[in-house]
Amino acid sequence: MAAIVLDGKQIALEIEEELKVRIANLEDNGVTPCLAVVIVGDDPASHVYVSSKERACARLGIRSIRVDISADAEYGEVVSNVRRLNADPAVNGILVQSPLPNSMDEIAITDLIDPVKDVDGFHAQNLGRLVQGDVSGLLPCTPAGVMRMLESADVDLSGKRAVVIGRSRIVGMPQSILLAQKGVDATVTIAHSRSVEMATLCKEADVIIAAVGISNMVTSDWVKPGSIVIDVGVNRVNDDSEKGYHLTGDVHPDVRRIAGMVSPVPGGVGPMTIAMLMSNTVRATEMQQ
Ligand code: NAD
Fold it and tell me: Domain boundaries in the chain?
């Protein structure tokens, strides 16, 4: 039987409807949430992501500010912009779009953001709270979006074996912590570039979360029948189309014939990430009142 396809776009719309109510409450108190995005350089994918964040803000009535900085700017210019936004009481959320040019220290910049405005949830203080078991603050958007997607599908993760492929600071590592947290209670394996026997590891999993960046890496022979496969990957594959490329995930489309539930690319984790960013912006605004 073909897998159930988890519709990230639809779940994101439902989250937006909930947020509209909270935004209206803030407006009643004279507050309009405001998200500032700092983008350095002209990476085309980053510009696409930033535009979709701006569109989501416009849909919800969140004010958005965009700070464009050229790729050859001094590191100090990024620092001074983050400091200025930290000090501006009208700005509730700040994110610095990844990747930064190689010469710039991304983690140092993240840690400069005021933790109560850190809507990406990457500041050491926010990640630290997550490790302490406190999930009430600003959580990293993509892993939180995956959790919300699983919750929407009524998936009970308690005692389930989950394999997270990828150990990045922004997806794999916080994803593993969220899955293993008390109350969720999955048994988590973190796989990465040095892991061996990936097929065997994955085949034993009830849940696979692929966050690698390798097109179609997870094939159907890696997947246990009926398992849940969440595809975080977004890969640009060049082709002869007008755009010159199309997007693929880390999970091969054939996996749908074996798995019980899958998330599509596009239309799966991507829209969930944006919805959780909007949610963090509203949460940050509420926390600052
Ligand atoms: P990253 O490059 O920081 O991390 C990739 C991880 O994959 C690393 O931990 C690495 O150890 C692991 N890896 C690499 N090769 C491997 C292999 N052969 N076997 C097993 N593990 C391997 O990437 P990231 O920022 O975590 O993003 C991962 C993917 O998710 C990318 O495709 C990215 O575009 C996508 N992404 C999507 C969203 C979204 O909203 N949909 C958000 C963030 C990232």
Answer: 30-115, 141-270
Of 49, 110, 148, 168, the residue with max ligand 1 atoms within 8 A of its CB, to mutate for a pocket test, comes to: 168
**Candidates 3.30.930.10, 3.30.360.10, 3.40.50.300, 3.40.50.720; CATH matching 141-270:** 3.40.50.720
Q: Give yes or no for a contact between 86 and 288, defined as CB atoms under 8 angstroms apart.
A: no
Span 99-121, average pLDDT: 97
- Using one digit for the tens of pLDDT, what is the confidence trace for 188-247? 999 999 999 999 999 999 999 999 999 999 999 999 999 999 999 999 999 999 999 999
- pLDDT tier at 175, thresholds 50, 70, 90: very high
Say which DSSP state 172 is in. H
Nearest CA to ligand 1 atom 13: 193
Phi, psi of 34 (to 5 degrees): -135, 125
Query: Rounded to two decimals, what is the model's pTM?
Result: 0.98
Centre of ligand 1 to C-alpha 216, Å, is 13
Q: What confidence category does residue 146 fall into, taking pLDDT thresholds of 50, 70 and 90?
A: very high
Write down the residue that tokens 């040019």 correspond to. Answer: 101
> Fold for domain 30-115?
Rossmann fold (3.40.50)
User: Ligand 1 pocket by C-beta < 6 Å: which residues?
Assistant: 142, 165-168, 170-172, 191-193, 195, 198, 211-214, 232-235, 269-270, 273
Q: Quote the pLDDT of residue 1.
A: 77
Averaged pLDDT for residues 56-76: 97
Contacts of 251 (CB under 8 A, 6+ apart): 208, 210, 216, 217, 218, 229, 231, 233, 262, 265
Residues facing residue 48 across a β-bridge: none
Ligand 1 geometric centre to CA of 167 (Å)? 8
